[in-house]
Amino acid sequence: MCGIVGYVGSRQAAPIMLEGLKRLEYRGYDSAGIVVCSDEGLTLCKTKGYVDHLNEMVCNGDALTGSVGLGHTRWATHGRPSDENAHPHLSDGGKIAVVHNGIIENYAQLREMLAAKGVTFKSETDTEVAVNLISYFYEGDLLKAVSEAALRMEGSYALGILCEDCPDTVVAVRKESPLILGIGEGENFLASDVTALIRHTRDVIYLEDGEIATLTKGEVKVYSRDLVEVKKKTTHIDWDISAAEKGGYEHFMFKEIMEQPEAIRKTITPRLRGGRVVLDGIDFSPEYIKGLRKIYIVGCGSAYLVGVVAKYNMEKMLRIPVETALASEFRYASPLVGEDTLVICISQSGETADTIAAMREARRLGAKVLSIVNVMGSTIANESDYCVYTWAGPEIAVATTKAYSTQLAVTYLLTLYFAERLGIISDESYSELVAALQMLPEKVEEILKNKEHIQYLASLYFNKDNIFFIGRNIDYALTLEASLKLKEISYIHSDAYAAGELKHGTISLIEDGTLVIAMASYVQLLEKTVSNIVEVRSRGAEILTLTTQSAEEQISHVSDNVITIPDAHEMILPSLAVVPMQLFAYYVALSRGCSIDKPRNLAKSVTVE
Ligand code: F6R
Question: Measured from the CB, is residue 349 less than 6 Å from ligand 1?
Answer without folding.
Answer: yes
